[in-house]
Each structure stands twice: as C-alpha cells, then as structure tokens.
Amino acid sequence: FGIATDENFVITTTSRKEITEDNFSELVQDGVTLYLLQSVDQELLSATKERIDFLPHYDTLVKSGMYEYYASEGQNPLPFALAELVDNSLSATSRNTGIRSIEIKLLFDDSQGKPAVAVLDNGRGMTSKQLKNWAVYRLSKFIRQDDFESDHSGYVRPLPVPRSLNSDISYFGVGGKQAVFFVGQSARMISKPAESQDVHELVLSKEDF
Q1: Which positions make up the signal peptide (predicted)?
Q2: Coil, strand, or helix at residue 27?
C-alpha cells in the first residue's frame, strides 16, 4: 500500500469501527469491506463502492406472488405500498428527541429523470451494514436473526393504537422492497447515521436483477 515504516494508519470497517487485535475475529469476515486510513475520522477523498452478494430469503420462494399482500381486505393496493415506505421512516424517527420530520414527494418532472416517489425523514440513519440488511428480501424487522444487525436497532414497537404516526401503519412489516417494485422499477436508499460523517447509498434495480 506504499505506507512508510514511520507512518501511522488504521484499518476500519465502513462504519468507522477500528480493527484491533481484540475485535479482529468479530469484525473481519468474508466479503467485508475495509478502509485503510490515516485516522478513524479521516475524510474520504472520493466515493467508495462495494458489491452486495446475497441469496434471497427462502420466504421469497415459498411466499412469492402473494396477491393478498397488496389487495388485502379488498383495498386499493397503492396505499398499502406507500404505507410500507412510510413505515420505515416512522421506525427511523420513533426516538427523535426533537422535531420529527417525514416528507413524501411525488416527482414527475421529466427533466429530472424518470417519475419517482421519494420519502425523506430526519431519523437516526443506517450504517452500511444495516443498509445491506435492508436489501435482503423477506428479512422482517421483527424476525431478523441474531447474526444480522437489525435495520431498526433499538426499535421499540409502539402500543397497539389506531393506525397513526405513533403506530406501525404497515400491516406486514416485511414488504419495503416489494412495495418499491410494485410502485416502480428501482429503489435508491440514501442514509447518514447520526453519529457518522459518512453517507451510505444503496441502489436496487429490477433491470440489474
């Protein structure tokens, strides 16, 4: 790497956790992306990319094509799909101590690209690992295994109340990706963890699949 013998450096995960002798076996695993930096807080000079390889959760095969997911109770399917997207923001902002902001934008300006639905919030954000876990199909925020870092760390399910901004409006809890591809052809998730200076971006494209 061209490092001089008298030069200091650190190796970190993409979540800026420094690799040490004590945590090496825990943090360094097959396929993990690492940063070689002069310091943990060093600003990245350019955007970085990492490829995500995963097999769909088995429920994708055994429960695929569930028409009831969108047409449950004979309702119009579009609100169900939008509810899934908003539900992510409700979870992300559930512990905000200040203003809780969630915006839904419908973009139809052809000069800015293809039409899109954008959901923006000021929640706590996701690390790169949490963002990768969000990409795994049928991996519910309520049934994630212990070896996965939940995409809603510390999330506390609200008390059952009429569907509102203080409750889970999603009836299903597992359909964020399906909702995206019901509405459109690709998903772009951009997130900055509150405690980090790095912005993480994930793109899922039907064309790429």
Answers
A1: none
A2: helix
- Give Cα separations from 73 to 96, 162, 174, 181 (angstroms): 33, 17, 18, 21
Written as tens digits, the pLDDT of the chain (209 aa) is 888 989 999 999 999 999 999 999 999 988 888 999 999 999 998 998 877 777 766 555 445 444 445 555 566 777 777 888 888 888 888 888 889 999 999 999 888 788 999 999 999 898 888 888 777 655 555 444 333 343 444 455 555 555 555 555 555 444 677 778 777 888 899 999 988 899 999 988 877 77
Single pTM value for the model: 0.63
Give the amino acid at 100: R
CB hemisphere CA count around 160 (13 angstroms): 1
Pick the CATH number of 58-147+157-205 from 3.30.565, 3.40.1130, 3.30.70, 3.40.50: 3.30.565
Spatial neighbors of 136 by CB under 8 A, at least 6 apart, are 54, 56, 57, 148
